[in-house]
Amino acid sequence: MNTLALPRFNLQHLLIGLFMLLAAGLAYVLTPKTKVADQGPRIDLEVMIPKQFGDWRLDESIVPLQVSPDVQAALDKIYNQTLSRTYINSQGQRIMLSIAYGSDQSDSMAVHKPEVCYPAQGFEIIQKRKGTLDVAGTSLHVVRLVAQHNNRIEPITYWISVGGETVTGGLDRKLAQMRYGLTGNVPDGLLFRISNINPDASRAYELHANFAGDLFQALNEAARATLFGKQAAR
Fold this sequence. Notes:
Elements: H1 2-30, E1 34-35, H2 45-48, E2 52-53, E3 56-58, H3 69-78, E4 81-89, E5 94-102, H4 114-120, E6 124-135, E7 138-149, E8 152-162, E9 165-167, H5 170-181, E10 185-186, E11 189-195, H6 201-218, H7 221-228, H8 230-233
Parallel strand pairs: 1-10
Antiparallel strand pairs: 2-3, 3-4, 4-5, 5-11, 6-7, 7-8, 8-9, 8-11
């Protein structure tokens, strides 16, 4: 009886082992390996974003705030390039622009959201909601925040682009990653953030839209697709 049971026991374990090897092999084959960023021209944010456009010019008097060393170390692991500038218009209104680009938007290199960065710098997120930003006749899905630190109130508009597709949440980002993964490609991505200091969030968001629209008009088609998504660039 025991002699007959032993071969069946060994066969069962052998089949389990074969299935595990097959699953591991399929996982390796189906894992995206080709970066989309390596298939086109190299992105240079400093060159791509003009220092003057529309009614906006770079405010040379403002030095961008430096993040803490631990936050900067985390950003360096996620992004290939970051750009932080402050622009001013003829009315003296200022906009802070921050763009972070990463050539690999797989799970291990997921974008670092302002909801995490701002509290790490001592801010409290007192409001968050999803919205739309109209650019060149296209509605971009964006996230709107209000961050506060003491008396400083900073409304924020941001969006995330994965492989040229704008997303607002973890599920949207994951679906975009999966669509690229099925083609064997690893998507690039960026986080585009606009903010200013204004206790009136509604007026601040209007200014954000004006700034984004002026920037869009100043860019070529490739830059529009990178920053605002392929749909807006069409």
